[in-house]
Amino acid sequence: MDQVFEKELRESGYLHRPLPLHTEKSLEAEMENKTVLAANDIWKEGMKKPVHTGIGTVTIEAGKGKEGGASLRIAAPTAHDIWTYGSPDWENGEEKEVYHAMLRFPADRENWEQYNRISFWVKPDSPGSRAVHLRCYLCNEGEHPVPDAYHREGQFLANLVNHEWNHVIWECALLPKDCVTEFAIKMDADGQDTSTGDFFQYDFDQIRMESIPEPELEKGWECQRGRISYSMSGYHNSGKKIAIINPQDLKPDEITRFQVLDGEGRVVLGQEARALSERTGNYGILDFSEITEPGQYRVVYGGLSTGSFRIGPDVMEEAVWKVLNFIYCERCGYPIPGKHGQCHMDVIAKHKGLIMPYGGGWHDAGDMSQQSLQTAEVMQVLFELAEHRKDDSLLYQRLMEEALWGLEFTLKTRFGDGYRASSVGLGMWTGGLIGDRDDVETRVHNQAFQNFFCGAAEAYAAIALKDYDADLAWKCGQAAKEDYQFAKARFEEFGMELPIMWEHTLNSGKSQYYAAAAWAAANIYQATCDEAYIQEAENWGARLMACQEAGTEGVPMKGFFYRDELHKTMVHFTHQGRDHSFVQALEALCRALPDSENRTKWEASMGLYGEYLKELSRMAAPYGMLPAGLHSIKEAEDEETFKLLHLQVEFSKEQENYREQLKSGIDLGGGYYVRMFPVWFSFRGNSAIHLGMGKAAALLGNYFKDRELADIAREQLYWVSGKNPFCQSLMYGEGERYAQQDANYPGEMTGEVPVGVQTMENEDIPYWPAGNNATYKEVWLTPAGRWLSIMASL
Predict the structure, then answer these.
(1) Cα dihedral 510/516/517/523 (nearest 10)
(2) Of the candidates 179, 122, 126, 133, which has an alpha carbon nearest to the alpha carbon of residue 155?
(3) 302 vs 213: CA distance, rounded Å
(4) CB of 309 closer than 8 Å to CB of 296
(5) Among 24, 546, 616, 706, which residue's beta carbon has the most beta carbons within 10 A?
(6) Distance between alpha carbon 25 and the CA centroid of its chain, in Å?
(7) Quick one: which of 531, 508, 576, 509 has its CA closest to 756?
(8) Which residues of 138-166 are buried (b: 16+ CB within 10 A; e: fewer)?
(9) pLDDT band at residue 82 under the 50/70/90 scheme
């Protein structure tokens, strides 16, 4: 472990206060040094005030500007009445002006195409606010209107440092700007956290459009010119080690060899750089897989160089701590130093005259929402990872501590009759007093999938706690049995039920239910030795395997799962993803029931899925990010499934776009296509998709001792660590060139992971806008959990 990081970790009390943010390695720090070729003012001293809508007042303040001139000041109150998911305002799409202050700078259908970024200085003075942010908007009425239909394009969130001048830079090279009608800046009334004062104030200066010579790459497979795409966290010593360069940087007539240097600057490998031509484009490949000696290295090719990275068996050790830091910072109902107080204690669940405080677990994302099932998922992963880190007592104990925080919430959200508090949309701080105007009521369900899943996680906790806290382990086992029985009774009576659209279980088909039930029964048997669950586990396992494609004439691939036994609709996900759940259930059956006569069938099913992943991975060169899977053109006719996978869009309006997205994938003939990215519309970002598939590869690689599958799993981690076309680490604080993310309420956090890389419109090409917006750049608990789950299996 790096000595500087080890010191920071120790000074944090091993994550009892957040790790520091190394903004000096961020993409924003790099943007500060870019040359400005031309500029045009939107507002500066001497110009008139913009249009003001919403709350607060706008004034011109002499002597308060960045360099002593005048500033544009807006001031407004911080508190407001509740506005959240499920409220009439949300359902009607009526965001009332009492919730924000807006500065609007009209433009008379102007062409801004010569400019590729917007820049301004802002100094927030919001007493008591530990995380401050604002949003920028650009409206275009040209050939490609902005905002788009889903309000994803044309928006940028800036996380700010309170009481200091911040330079906000929004690169927007690909954003349509041929007919601009408005630029706007919005500051939300976010409610009051423990320390928050009654008002916020922002001073603005030097708001302008700028032109720079080399904006960041935002779209495409061929990586950023002048850089080497590599895993900034390092490479496992026994696996493949490949770095990538843009084909225009490959100059065989001048330079044919790249070098690998060790930590002392000695050349340890000189190797030919080779050209690679793939369906997705042309690449220069730097392959140094033969290096297996642990140590620090860097790769140089001509004038290009990587940063220093590690090769070894534990190269992701620091990243594990960082992701754990992010999860800790997302705690709800718990004071996080420098982030927030004991938040959301007046978020409540009601059921049969009972009132349950819902503050606890971990927030869903940067908007402070809460999904009980996500907390249960991450809790189980932390216990799983802890089991494999007992040789590191500090990490083991810290993982167990964080897992217990999630377990407490998972157990307390049960009403004891099958109903549980399930989720809530927040998007604000609340005051903590039950009975006043800002209380929020959660959703409450008795739903089979959630109870199967939570029962499985509770049983896993019982296994992990057997020698750690025997009494709590007993309680987890009892809760798991109860939740399993609630789920089974509900499923037998009602079958597959749909929760409210905002919950991340909405997309679960019957095969997902079978996987959760089999996983639960296997874990319960292993935890409690109750033999009644042997037959239960085997029955669910048989139903699950009946959903798998084992080799049908005309179907070009096998091993994947359908949504049910009828084999009509394949399992797909959009930004949520649980592709690993099938393998997870089968592996649990093999682990819990090693002497079962069905074990060979379970292993054969797992092997089929492993071959499916291997076949997909052969389409993933050179980056190794697993494709989203096989699709059929018939999916475009399936309105019922469409509604479960694609929120906030209409089937009739998007049906043709669905077909176009399929056709932009890899055509395997017969109406079958492999998409590199999912078919999706409003909700985009693939971290949970490819990391979930990576978890499956890791489980199978570990179970079968299959090195190829282990390498496939590691490639999913490498993509996050910078081995992607944009040469950016997607994990804040790990590696370098990590960008701000949509983390508005807690603010930036070391170890945060976004929803993930998306695509533009109907394309199947990586798209990573420099604009910071949900969903793609919103921090999210799920990919952090998936990332740790791969580490647990490797």
Answers:
(1) 170
(2) 133
(3) 22
(4) yes
(5) 616
(6) 21
(7) 576
(8) bbbeeeeebeeeeebbbbbbbbbebeeeb
(9) low
C-alpha distances (whole Å) from 344 to each of 127, 191, 370, 379, 611 are 20, 11, 10, 20, 46
% pLDDT > 70, the chain: 97
DSSP 78: S
Kindly report which listed range (176-185, 190-199, 588-597, 606-615) carries the lowest average pLDDT score.
190-199
Token pair listed for 694: 């990576």
Could you give the CA distance from residue 355 to residue 352 in angstroms, rounded to a whole number? 9
Query: Which residue, chain included where needed, has tokens 């044309």?
Result: 154
Distance of alpha carbon 152 from the chain centroid: 16
CB atoms within 10 A of CB 536: 20
Q: How far is CA 693 from CA 316, 448, 525, in A?
A: 19, 24, 26
Beta strands 309-312 and 235-236, pairing class: parallel
Q: Give yes or no for a contact between 477 and 460, defined as CB atoms under 8 angstroms apart.
A: no
Helix 393-412 × helix 448-464 angle, to 10° = 140
Question: What is the CA angle 517-513-331, rounded to 5?
Answer: 85
CA distance 744 to 368: 9
Residue 255's Cβ-count burial label (10 Å; 0-12, 13-18, 19+) is middle
Question: Are 208 and 39 spatial neighbours (Cβ–Cβ below 8 Å)?
Answer: yes
| Residue (of 260, 226, 265) closest to 241 by Cα position | 260
- Going by pLDDT thresholds of 50, 70 and 90, the confidence category of residue 754 is very high
Cis previous bond, 775, omega within 30: yes
Q: Report the first-to-last Cα separation within the chain, whole angstroms.
A: 19
Cα–Cα distance measured from residue 133 to residue 745, given in angstroms and rounded to the nearest whole number: 8
What letter does residue 236 receive in the DSSP assignment? E
Specify the pairing of strand 629-632 against strand 443-445.
unpaired
Cα(786)–Cα(792) distance, integer angstroms: 10
Please count the other Cβ atoms lying within 10 Å of the Cβ belonging to residue 91.
9
Question: Which residue, among 538, 710, 524, 529, has the nearest Cα to 617 in the 3D structure?
Answer: 710
Q: Enter the pTM of the model.
A: 0.96
Print burial letters for 214-242: b (CB count within 10 Å at least 16), e (below 16).
ebbbbbbbbbbeebbbbbbbbbbbebbbb
DSSP 17-54: SPPPP-GGGBHHHHHTTSPP-EEEEEE-TTSPP-EEEE
How far is residue 726's CA from residue 220's CA, in Å, rounded to a whole number? 9
What band does 91 get if pLDDT is binned at 50, 70 and 90? low
Residues 463 and 678: their CA atoms lie apart, in Å, by 35
Encode pLDDT of 260-300 as tens digits: 999 999 999 999 999 999 999 999 999 999 999 999 999 99
CA distance 461 to 523: 9
* Those residues with Cβ within 8 angstroms of residue 359's Cβ, 6 or more apart along the chain or in another chain: 332, 333, 342, 343, 344, 345, 346, 347
- Whole-number Å distance between alpha carbons of 575 and 783: 10
Residue pair 598/538 in contact (Cβ under 8 Å)? The answer is yes
Encoded amino acid at 104, one letter: R
DSSP structure class, residue 247? G
Report which of 570, 605, 607, 576 is spatially closest to residue 499, judged by C-alpha positions. Answer: 576
Between helix 532-545 and helix 470-494 the angle, nearest 10°, is 50
Residue with tokens 């033999």: 531
Find the helix or strand (DSSP H, E) in which 481 lies: helix 470-494
Return the HEC string of 143-161: CCCECCCCCCCCEEEEEEC
The most distant pair of C-alpha atoms in the chain lies apart, rounded to whole Å, by: 83
Q: Tokens 């899925």 correspond to what residue? A: 609
Do the beta carbons of residue 335 and residue 342 sit within 8 Å?
A: yes
Taking the CA atoms of the chain, what radius of gyration do you get in angstroms?
A: 26
3-state secondary structure of 352: coil
Residue 534 buriedness (CB in 10 A; 0-12 / 13-18 / 19+): middle
Q: Is-contact 162 130, C-beta < 8 A? A: yes
Tell me the per-residue pLDDT of 706-733, one tens digit each, with 9 for 90 and over. Answer: 999 999 999 999 999 999 999 999 999 9
